[in-house]
C-alpha cells in the first residue's frame, strides 16, 4: 500500500489515495500505522477517495481506530494532495472579504458535508496555504451532542477530578468542549483530557481544549483530541475556540489561534455565520506499507 505522511501544524496523519488503493479495514489499519513505535507514527489515518457530490471525499480515522466526522488540519492536507496529485481539476478563485484571495479552489466531501477550500499556490505549482470554509458552528446541545438541556452551553459549571471548571461547547461537525484558563502550563491535560473526553455527558465522547486569552485578537490553546490524545494542533478545535471566545465576550471574530504546532488564522463572519480557517499543509514523505 502506498501512503503519504502529511501534517498541518504538526497534526500528522497517514494519507492513502483510494483512487488507487483499496482498504478493507480502515479502523484496524489506522491503529497499526498510527503507532509511533511499531508503525509509521501519526495521529490517525485519512483516506482520499472519489465523491459523487464533490471533487474528492475524505474519511478520518483516529489513532484508536474510531472514525471522526471532520479534521481541520487534515482537510488542508487533503486539498494539497488532491491538487498536486491531480485527483481533481481546481475550481475558480476563492476569496473571503477582508482576507487574501486564493488562486484556486476545491470542494471536499467530509462527515460534516461538502466544504470549500481555497488554495495558495507558489511558483512551483505547490500548495503552501489553504483556507477552509468550515461551515456554521453548531451550538444546540442535542446536536453537538451533549446531555445538557438548553439552547447553548456557555461557561457551564462542571467538576472533573475534583476541579471546578467552566465549560463552553461547540460543534464544528465534531464535538468540542472549551475551558478558558489563566495558566495553560498549570493544566494537567494528560489527566483531565481523558476524563473529560469520556465523561457521561458526551454520548459520542468529545475533543477537549484549554484556552488562554492573550488579547482580543489572539489566544493560545492546548488540546486533547478524542481518540488520539494530546496533539500538536486541532483545526476544528481552533475554530470552536474562536466561536467560544466570541460567545463569552473574550474574543473578536477575526483572530489568531496559537497552537503548539503553529498558528491558524480564524474568521467567524457574521455575514454567513461561517468560520474560515487559514493555515499551512505540508508533505513529509511517501512510502510503501507492507501487506
Helices and strands, in order, run as EEHEEEHEEEEEEEEHEEEHEEEE
Structure class: alpha+beta
Task: Please state the second-level CATH architecture of the largest domain.
Answer: Roll
CATH homologous superfamily identity of the largest domain: Diaminopimelate Epimerase, Chain A, domain 1
Estimate what percentage of residues fall within beta strands.
35-45%
Our count of domains comes out at 2
Mean pLDDT, nearest integer? 96
Write down the oligomeric state: single chain
Number of separate helices: 4
Q: What would the principal axes of the Cα set say about the shape?
A: globular
How far apart are the termini?
7 Å
| Main pleated-sheet profile | 18 strands, mixed
| CATH class division of the largest domain | Alpha Beta
Low-confidence stretches are none
Approximately how much helix is present in the residues? 10-25%
- The CATH topology of the largest domain: Diaminopimelate Epimerase, Chain A, domain 1
How much is the radius of gyration in Å? 18 Å
Number of β-strand runs: 20
Molecular structure report:
- The structure is a single chain.
- The protein is 15% helix and 42% strand.
- The protein is built from four helices and 20 strands.
- The relative contact order is 0.17.
- It is of the alpha+beta class.
- The model has no long low-confidence stretch (mean pLDDT 96).
- The longest helix is centred in the N-terminal third of the chain and has 13 residues, at 72-84.
- The strands form two sheets. The protein has an 18-stranded mixed beta sheet that branches.
- The chain has two domains: 2-135 and 279-288, Diaminopimelate Epimerase, Chain A, domain 1, CATH 3.10.310.10; 141-271, Roll (Diaminopimelate Epimerase, Chain A, domain 1).
Amino acid at each position: 500500500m502506498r501512503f503519504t505522511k502529511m501534517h498541518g501544524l504538526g497534526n500528522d496523519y497517514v494519507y492513502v489515495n483510494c483512487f488507487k488503493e483499496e482498504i478493507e479495514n480502515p479502523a484496524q489499519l489506522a491503529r497499526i500505522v498510527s503507532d509511533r513505535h511499531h508503525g509509521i507514527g501519526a495521529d490517525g489515518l485519512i483516506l482520499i477517495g472519489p465523491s459523487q457530490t464533490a471533487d474528492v471525499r475524505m474519511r478520518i480515522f483516529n489513532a484508536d481506530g474510531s472514525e471522526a466526522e471532520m479534521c481541520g488540519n487534515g482537510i488542508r492536507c487533503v486539498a494539497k494532495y488532491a491538487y498536486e496529485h491531480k485527483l481533481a481539476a481546481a475550481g475558480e478563485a476563492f476569496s473571503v472579504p477582508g482576507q487574501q484571495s486564493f488562486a484556486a479552489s476545491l470542494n471536499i466531501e467530509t462527515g460534516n458535508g461538502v466544504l470549500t477550500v481555497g488554495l495558495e499556490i507558489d511558483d512551483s505549482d505547490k500548495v503552501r496555504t489553504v483556507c477552509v470554509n468550515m461551515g456554521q458552528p453548531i451550538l444546540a446541545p442535542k446536536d453537538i451532542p451533549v446531555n445538557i438541556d438548553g439552547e447553548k452551553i456557555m461557561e457551564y459549571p462542571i467538576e472533573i477530578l475534583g476541579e471546578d471548571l467552566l465549560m463552553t461547547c461547540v460543534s464544528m461537525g465534531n464535538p468540542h468542549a472549551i475551558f478558558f484558563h489563566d495558566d495553560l502550563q498549570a493544566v494537567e491535560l494528560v489527566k483531565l483530557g481523558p476524563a473529560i473526553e469520556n465523561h457521561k455527558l458526551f454520548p459520542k465522547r468529545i475533543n477537549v481544549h484549554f484556552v488562554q486569552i492573550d488579547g482580543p485578537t489572539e489566544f493560545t490553546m492546548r488540546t486533547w483530541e478524542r481518540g488520539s490524545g494530546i496533539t500538536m494542533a486541532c483545526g476544528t478545535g481552533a475554530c470552536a475556540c474562536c466561536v467560544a471566545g466570541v460567545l463569552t465576550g473574550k474574543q473578536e471574530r477575526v483572530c489568531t489561534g496559537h497552537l503548539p504546532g503553529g498558528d491558524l488564522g480564524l474568521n467567524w463572519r457574521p455575514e454567513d455565520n461561517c468560520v474560515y480557517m487559514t493555515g499551512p499543509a505540508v508533505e513529509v514523505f511517501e512510502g510503501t506499507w507492507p501487506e
